[in-house]
Amino acid sequence: MEDSIMIQLKDINYEIDGQTILKHISADIYKGKITTIIGPSGAGKSTLLSFFNALKSPTSGQLIIDGKNLESYDFIELRRKVQLVSQVATMINGTVKDNLALPLTLQNKTMTDDEATQFLKHVDLPETFLNKNTKELSGGEKQKVSLARSLVNKPKVMLLDEVTSALDKNSKQAIEDLLKKINKEHEVTMLNITHDINLAFDMSDYIWVMIDGQIAEIGTVDEIQDAKNDNVRKFIGEKI
Ligand SMILES: Nc1ncnc2c1ncn2[C@@H]1O[C@H](COP(=O)(O)OP(=O)(O)OP(=O)(O)O)[C@@H](O)[C@H]1O
């Protein structure tokens, strides 16, 4: 069966201060799949990611998310549908439960302990964590709580911005495994940025290689590993 499209990018360009950062980006992101953007520092990966939840807007081009043009979204609606998870898990002062409930608190709703426990289960944390102060958590545990919290609004898309880069080897593996599990169980479309090429090869359905503001190559992991484009081969060769 053909993969169906969750996000379409049509000739996206971005300029700032007279400098062209992104050039003619056209590509599709498929529903329920993990797409990872790799490429050298300064290629434009973060800039591109920031369009999907409207932190920045393209200078020209069209971005269609779940069948609707980005410009016709209400920001709140968009950010519930498209959740950003960052490199550093930002926590509010208080307990794990306070943090898990935050997306609901902001909507004047509440979360029961049972509901919170279910969210902890999704990220393999025990119920005993509910009343822990977030100051007592390790980096990996914070990232798990952050992932659990990002599921509360039942997003269709998760933007993962270097989510494992601040973690040690064991926590990296745990978060990678969790992302794969969340992707399958919640059928969330994931768009991932990483400098860790092994992580990209391990967890992606599709990889985009960005070089100098353009997509140099799109393909499955096998296709990217066999890419003929010299710049792509050089970038991957340097990273492995
Ligand atoms: N506000 C800005 N003003 C001017 N130039 C900017 C601005 N923001 C980003 N840039 C430039 O845009 C280019 C792309 O930056 P971006 O952060 O998207 O790259 P990246 O691929 O994510 O890099 P990294 O892997 O280092 O995070 C860089 O050359 C950067 O200097």
**Number of DSSP helices?**
9
Measured by DSSP, the beta-strand proportion falls in 25-35%
Task: Tell me the count of domains.
Answer: 1
- State the total count of DSSP E strands: 10
Question: End-to-end span in angstroms?
Answer: 33 Å
Mind telling me which CATH architecture this is? 3-Layer(aba) Sandwich
Structure description:
This protein is of the alpha/beta class. The protein has a single domain, classed as Rossmann fold, CATH 3.40.50.300. The chain contains 9 helices and 10 strands. A hairpin with a 2-residue loop joins strand 9 and strand 10. 36% of the residues are buried. The site of adenosine-5'-triphosphate (ATP) has 12 residues, from strand 2 and helix 1. Adenosine-5'-triphosphate binds next to strand 2 and helix 1.
